């Protein structure tokens, strides 16, 4: 049985004070919540502080990116080994902002995915189409291509224990969100696409929805059978709003 996962991507936001206050608020608000895994992904500078602050709770910590190299002369980068040593367990890969602003190709994302798996960390593979691709009817084509980059390089079993986050690019940070029915249709397509190669892998893989998820639309989204939680952006920076989303996921999948 799949258990929901709600992950907060802080993006380029935060400070030592915000990190301390937000985690303290989450620990209080989520102390009695069961049945939903919770992960926060602060900027790299605050990962060590976050790992220390969540100790003794059920909140996990993830990173927003890694380098493909484990060590060496690669100024400014952070390796999977370093993240693991810090206590990080999850790594977001292929977010549309990385693909757009840093020109990360499907092949680069697949390479990073392999590194994360090899180091025993949990990859959160972001996939999704732009507004133009959506309007052109290419949603399924884009999603399958981005997943297949990993499957073709490493085999479908590489998705075992991994997380996929479907994030329609047109809904990220825009206030727009796919309707629950639209999101469910894509999530089902993703699961069915993986099932063509392994039904067992498809049934266990966590598929999150991301794209302007908030405390108002979360419950209806999580009521869909193939939506296993959310990758949350702006709402994850407020303990009260993020907690409502987590509680909605726990209640929907109870």
Automatic annotation (TrEMBL):
SUPFAM superfamilies: Triosephosphate isomerase (TIM)
Main subcellular location of this protein, as a coarse class: cytoplasm
Keywords carried by this UniProt record: Cytoplasm, Gluconeogenesis, Glycolysis, Isomerase
GO MF entry, a single one: triose-phosphate isomerase activity
Positions that bind substrate: 9-11, 173, 212, 233-234
Record's GO cellular component terms: cytosol
Compartments where located: Cytoplasm
GO biological process, alphabetically ordered: gluconeogenesis; glyceraldehyde-3-phosphate biosynthetic process; glycerol catabolic process; glycolytic process
Entries under Pfam families matching the protein: TIM
Catalytic residues (UniProt): 95 (electrophile), 167 (proton acceptor)
Entry EC number(s): 5.3.1.1
Involved pathway(s): Carbohydrate metabolism; erythritol degradation; Carbohydrate biosynthesis; gluconeogenesis; Carbohydrate degradation; glycolysis; D-glyceraldehyde 3-phosphate from glycerone phosphate: step 1/1
UniProt subunit comment: Homodimer.
Protein family: Belongs to the triosephosphate isomerase family.
Protein's name according to its UniProt entry: Triosephosphate isomerase
Organism this protein belongs to: Rosenbergiella nectarea
Phylogenetic classification of the source organism: Bacteria, Pseudomonadati, Pseudomonadota, Gammaproteobacteria, Enterobacterales
């Amino acid at each position: 049985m799949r258990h929901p996962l709600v992950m907060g991507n802080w993006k380029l936001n935060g400070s030592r004070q915000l990190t301390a206050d937000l985690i303290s608020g989450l620990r209080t608000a989520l102390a009695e919540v069961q049945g939903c895994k919770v992960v926060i992904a602060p900027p790299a500078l605050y990962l060590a502080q976050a790992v220390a602050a969540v100790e003794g709770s059920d909140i996990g910590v993830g990173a927003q990116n890694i380098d493909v190299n484990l060590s060496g002369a690669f100024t400014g980068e952070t390796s999977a080994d370093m993240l693991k040593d810090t206590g990080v367990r999850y790594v977001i890969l292929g977010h549309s902002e990385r693909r757009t602003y840093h020109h990360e190709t499907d092949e680069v994302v697949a390479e990073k995915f392999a590194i994360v798996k090899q180091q025993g960390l949990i990859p959160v593979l972001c996939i999704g189409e732009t507004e133009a691709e959506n309007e052109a009817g290419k949603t399924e084509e884009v999603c399958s291509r981005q997943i297949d980059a990993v499957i073709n390089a490493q085999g479908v079993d590489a998705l075992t224990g991994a997380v996929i986050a479907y994030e329609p690019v047109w809904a990220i940070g825009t206030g727009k969100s796919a309707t629950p029915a639209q999101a469910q249709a894509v999530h089902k397509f993703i699961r069915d696409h993986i099932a063509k190669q392994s039904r067992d892998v498809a049934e266990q893989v966590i598929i999150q929805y991301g794209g302007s998820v908030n405390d108002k639309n979360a419950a209806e989204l999580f009521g869909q059978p193939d939506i296993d939680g959310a990758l949350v952006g702006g709402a994850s920076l407020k303990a009260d709003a993020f907690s409502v989303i987590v509680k909605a996921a726990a209640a929907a999948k109870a």
